[in-house]
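[09:14] KT: can someone run the structure on this one? pasting the chain below
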Amino acid sequence: MARIVLPGETVASYVWDYAGQMQIMRYFFDSALEIDEGASAFDDGVNASIYRPQPLTDAYNAAGLVDVETTAIDIQTPLVDFDDYWSPFLGGTGSAPRHCLLLDENTRNRIKIRSKQSCRPVRATRFYSRLGLGR
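[09:31] RB: done, structure tokens below
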């Protein structure tokens, strides 16, 4: 994006805050890490540093963009009940569901119970938007 943007034009992107305020994922991985050490290999909040505000800002600056701005955007995620929360983890798409499906039934159920103990039905998820101006 930095290579093709004209001077003074805007480049924008966003990433989910897997490491912190995307509670849907944090509830799962925080619970999974208590029960299964292997969960850390799938936790994007740990493994993908670019999902954090400063590394993404640094990447924009390193690409030559100027006046890089970081903004947190919170989005409510209304859920009907715990099953509404849990069912996507059984779909296999994404790092958490992929990990969940690789587990034996007993371990998966233990993580489900632990997640239910810490999960609230309605929480905000956060992603960070980055804006940078062309060189």
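[09:33] KT: thanks! The chain has one domain: 18-133.
[09:34] RB: yep, looked fine to me
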